[in-house]
Amino acid sequence: MRSVYIETYGCQMNLADTELLLGHLNRHGYQRTQDPAGADVILINTCAIREHAEERVLGRLGDLLRYKARRPDVQIGLAGCMAQHLRDTLMAKLPLVDFVVGPDAYRRLPEMLANAAGDPFIDVRLDRAETYADITPQREGGVRAWVTIMRGCDKFCTFCVVPFVRGRERSLPADALIDQVRRLAADGYREVVYLGQTVNAYRDGATDFAELLRRTDAIDGIERIRFTSPHPSDMSERVIDAMTTCGKVCPQLHLPLQSGSDRVLERMERGYTAAEYLDLVTRLRRALPDIALSTDIIVGFPGEDEADFLATRELMRLVGYDNAFMFKYSARSGTKAFKWEETVPEEEKSRRLQAIIALQEECSAAINRMQIGRVTKVLVEGPARRREGWMAGKTPQFKTAVFPANGYRVGDIGPLRITDSTAHTLIGVSP
Predict the structure, then answer these.
(1) Which DSSP state fits 137?
(2) What are the beta bridge partners of residue 429?
(3) Which of 93, 114, 126, 425 could make an SS bond with 167 (beta carbons 3.0 to 4.6 A apart)?
(4) Which tens digit of pLDDT belongs to each residue from 309-349?
């Protein structure tokens, strides 16, 4: 078998695509190696959401090219969103790269590698029919499996490059997904996480997202169900009802906000107002009182003034998120906002970012302190990183908990009494 070395950058969708690539390449005679020095193929699977990620990947790719200098026959290339985004300039920037494949070209990669004959190749064609539903990902094991249920996006937010690098929205057949989850249960996975750019917009024709959750809830062996990332506009009452009535769907939701200002939300073309978002939060908490909410926030979007920023900070305070992913606006070529004038200086972006990070740290710490004295259930994932003889796992709210091993094994789901906390971690003992 030929060997392939893969590095992955970006979101969980990219990690899921790496598992897909490995499964497909394995069917065609490739075996994964952890050593790039001896690999026949070196592949970087990439993200294009932020400019900094692209800079890191280009630097790493340049570093990996040293293996080609030693072994000219090694094939080195780029896959994923960044490959799609920089398709017109990548070969010029890194002329020694052998191939560039976009997110819809993975199926053709083994054939292209076999027939390249030393010539570089690019395949970044987007395909509205490609879902890879027939390809079994090669996973590394563990207690949690990530399952892509839809590809692409139809939202076209003005700051986001995803529809241009992953194509238009299409859903995998529900029957194929249910079969995949049954196999995961048989392989010992305890939790499944459904993935999609707007995961709650899933619809395969006969089955919508709420029904998919209900069908998954009935699968023996799977104990927890999560999904990410939903779009607020697609969070229907049917989905909320499924979250409430399906015992395995966890009380945890990542609900991207981006901005708390109606003016900025309109320029972002998010499709909701701050009041509509807050109403959704109210309905979610009414249905699931113990739900944990996380979000995405962008500061410094073109046209954002101090009042807009303060509106975002106030909405964060009103919601009280358990966690947040916070960023300075990064212009991406190909998006609508890329043509707009940057109105917020870099120093001001940094100030605003630091202000909401401080606010979120306080909020996360306060929410976690409220867990002290309570008993929750933890899914054991493995040894804790910083405490010898301790284990780590996730609560139903997807909070990291650490605790003395005391007979806990990976894959166990057991009670845990919380005795202490930080902004990011719960500390507990067996009750």
Answers:
(1) P
(2) 417
(3) 126
(4) 999 999 999 999 999 999 999 998 889 999 999 999 999 99
Q: Please, are residues 421 and 427 in contact by the beta-carbon 8 Å criterion? A: yes
112: left (phi over 0), alpha (psi -120 to 50) or beta: alpha
| CA neighbor of 357 nearest in space, from 321, 388, 332, 382 | 321
Residue pair 335/382 in contact (Cβ under 8 Å)? The answer is no
Residue 50 has what pLDDT?
62
Helix (H) or strand (E) holding 314: helix 306-319
Cβ neighbors of 386 (< 8 A, separation 6 or more) are 402
| Residue 62 in tokens | 């340049």
Starting at the edge strand found earlier in the chain, the sheet holding 252-254 runs 252-254, 292-299, 323-328
DSSP state for residue 146 in the 8-state scheme: E
Its pTM surpasses 0.70? yes
pLDDT reported for residue 427: 98
Tokens 């890329």 locate to 338
| pLDDT of 303 over the 80 cut | yes
| Cα separation, 120 vs 100, whole angstroms | 8
How many C-beta atoms lie closer than 10 Å to residue 317's C-beta?
Answer: 15
- Rounded to 5 degrees, φ, ψ at 164 are -85, -25
Retrieve residue 237's tokens: 């009452």
